[in-house]
Description:
The protein contains four helices and seven strands, in the order ααβαβαβββββ. It has helices at residues 2-8, 33-45, 67-73, 81-94; strands at 57-64, 78-80, 95-100, 110-111, 115-128, 136-150, 153-163. The longest helix is centred in the middle third of the chain and has 14 residues, at 81-94.
Amino acid sequence: MALLLLGACDIFTVRESELPGEPPPWNEYAYEVEHILANLQYCYMDSRNKIHYSGLFTPNYVFYFAPQDVSDYSIEPTWDRIMEQDMIQLLHNRYTGLDLDSLKIDEDDQISENEAKIYSQYTLRGNPRYGGSKSVILAHGNLELHLRRQGGYWYIEKWYDYRGSSGTTWD
Length: 171
């Protein structure tokens, strides 16, 4: 009787396989400063890229919090590459539709053969995964990225975060 029921369910028939989805945007080799900036943005906007996130940074990478945030919230002034990776994981766990304003190279930026300093304003938005679908601003401020070329590829070595005119950087 069981064999008859299983046969009637088409459980043993071969089904059509699904076509693979579109791969997430990514610059496999960051030969240009623009590539590393785009990859930084891609890690926020597509959660499938979070596995690449720590690869954007040098092994001795340091994030420097805004000095006012350190004093106002009694937090450590810096964190490292591992904590940076934990942060992107946490953001993707709590929010969907993350959007980091595109970081563009400006005439004030300093780019040499093996080092670069990028200055930019940024806004990070996301939709809370639980308890709301309205996009919220998660962070807003100014950043200073110090990049280094190693082995022909660009990596982020230091990230300085500064408050914008609206107050705190991270909400």
